[in-house]
Amino acid sequence: MALATVEFLSARGYTSDRVVMVRAALAAARSTGKEAHEGFWLHWLGYVLQELGQPGEAISHYEEALRIYRKLDRREPQVWLLIRLANAHFQLDQFDDGLDLFNRAGEISREIGMDDRVEFQGPVYQLGPLQERLAEQRRIGDRRAELGTLGPLTGVYSRLLHREEYLEEALGYNEEGLAISREIGHRPAERKHLGRLGEVYVALGRPEEAIGFFESALAISRELGDRQAEGDSLTNLGNAWYLLGRIEKAVRFMDEALTLFRELGSPQAETVRATLAEWRHGNTMAWDSEGPRT
After folding, report:
1. Residue ranges covered by each domain of the chain
2. CA 216 to mean position of chain CA atoms
3. In CATH, which of 3.30.70.790, 1.25.40.10, 3.30.365.10, 1.20.140.10 is domain 1-114?
4. pLDDT, tens only, 20-63
5. What is the pTM of this model?
6. Are 224 and 209 spatial neighbours (Cβ–Cβ below 8 Å)?
């Protein structure tokens, strides 16, 4: 009944009444000690406040609801809360935090088999405001600010590479980011855009073109001493060579990545280990131009 009343008030624009109603429902839920109900109304309160242009206050309620659902091991509500949190951070121009939250929502949605539209919708919402900000920075000619926006913008596109309609845009923005990073001498950004360009070419079905970008990204990662980025580049190279049927070469890069991730204590070590096991099991005694694949 309470939810129906909130929706009724929302449809008619009675925003202040809606906040009062949700707060009353939250108080009632807390009085019963039913944490699932409390989490539900915390989520709703955050949503109402966010609609009213108060994302900062919404975030605190979303985070409280998220803690409850984690305690209860309710994973689907966690996905929706992470998406709401990401959008709230996005409203505050905290794009990196927002992208990280969307990534976490996507990971959980895949683990529990939710429809990929749940994962897909979040990044799409980010594109418009980021593109608008980039257009303004272009207008005033602030190249360093442009590069700062192209980082999170191409990060969003990296979440959309399974959608063919976004690939050309991803290619164009990453090429622009690479050009600016070289123009102003920003090596970490250059490494990032090289790696993302390689990922776009893989998504386009052109892994042979991706390899050069991954190799360049690997060289810069080593130059900068960025071991996490080095491991990512090694993994990307392994996957690209695997797609080209060069299994022995792919395994060599993945073995190197596995050693590095283990040294770092990274959870990526387990993902790489599983990939290697799958490759070796599926390609026992196969051959390529380099000799036997083991």
Report:
1. 1-114
2. 23
3. 1.25.40.10
4. 888 888 898 899 999 999 999 999 999 988 888 888 999 999 99
5. 0.66
6. no
